[in-house]
């Protein structure tokens, strides 16, 4: 069998392979004709289709990527089976039309459905490939890439109470992109990242073959588990290991203002959170001059209060701060803060184009001093201020070797930072704020390279340059080593083996590199 995931190879000038050139209008027409011979017409949307705009917008999360000047796809293919995806790739290769793949549309730079530069491309939208097949006895599941995190959580909890999956907090994320980039979440200290619990996958490669783990081989299977979406092929489904959770977990939200010692509490949290018992995870959201400590404990309230009284008395947690609930309910409560919000909310895939956003990320290996936190908090004062999310590492996620998966931010990492700016209209205050804070933080975060999380994609770090028909390895290193550290070269070599012609390409796709061994 086969699976889809992309891997890039940088070719020398003397070996241009079978790269895809810019198609003519005739080639574009031939591409659409080719699709029509293998894919039902109701599964292909062109700009002339009445539903084209609604399908395109269905997974766009940021209005800055839906403007009159946005470079939009030649068409959107909405496959319902693997053969449709294979046909899209084969037709694209034959007629020089690249495809980009979208599962949930959460790509922070929108590269799954738009291009930064003028080019002709198609989008393969996996929203109709979203089934979840649970094997309760084996504690495994096959989940399609078009399913959302929320749909997976809901399906697993309903089919196999007592089992769960370690993944992210945002329920509308598509699993194809989320897992491809790593998958951090509230249970990663107990069970690792999402990629640490992937057992198999199916992928359509650049030659249109359908591959499973065995057919992929060691390098490609390694690369799709953390090497980022849109690089090595199109992953259609993942076989995942489900993990045990108790019938009752406890969640707590405790907010501290500056006057209540927020800076002191965050300073202590930095070294405490990565070393806590693995059943206990605390993340922090800094916003509006306060810090919100969100705690998930895989157990009951009494045990949590005892532990926190001993380990983190600065929070002053009492039983009144606890909310006991099912694990499934906690995945809703972390966002709603309301125990009455139904778990069916997890099945909601709708999105809004009301708010512009920009995201950046960092990793911290040495605790930031209290004096520095006193200087950080004022950044969150004012109408342009966004927020900062701190996700603790350590535990299981930190015990896996950096090179075991493409995700390299493990050994010695205390926590990840996500910076989020939001604004409305054509304002620039939000972008100016996040750029200023990001620059201010540079001395206090990881260095050489300054690390970043590929699932928080940021084109400010760098964009690819295409030389001789393929992506330049040197241009890719600029951003690639921030995301993947020392694993970037292996990713590029793998790309060279499986997609030497650089068919799966975007502004931050892994470039193909000829093996140096």
UniProtKB/TrEMBL annotation:
Q: Species lineage, top-down?
A: Eukaryota, Viridiplantae, Streptophyta, Embryophyta, Tracheophyta
User: Needs which cofactor?
Assistant: FAD
Keywords annotated in UniProt: FAD, Flavoprotein, Glycoprotein, Signal
Provenance organism: Triticum aestivum
Q: Where is the signal peptide, in residue numbers?
A: 1-26
Residue limits of the FAD-binding PCMH-type domain?
Answer: 69-245
Any single Pfam family the record assigns to this protein: BBE
Keyword ATP-binding among UniProt keywords: no
- InterPro entries per UniProt: BBE, FAD-bd_PCMH, FAD-bd_PCMH-like_sf, FAD-bd_PCMH_sub1, FAD-bd_PCMH_sub2, Oxid_FAD_bind_N
Decide whether keyword Lyase is in the record: no
Q: What terms describe the molecular function in GO for this protein?
A: FAD binding; oxidoreductase activity
Listed name of the protein: FAD-binding PCMH-type domain-containing protein
Q: Which family does it belong to?
A: Belongs to the oxygen-dependent FAD-linked oxidoreductase family.
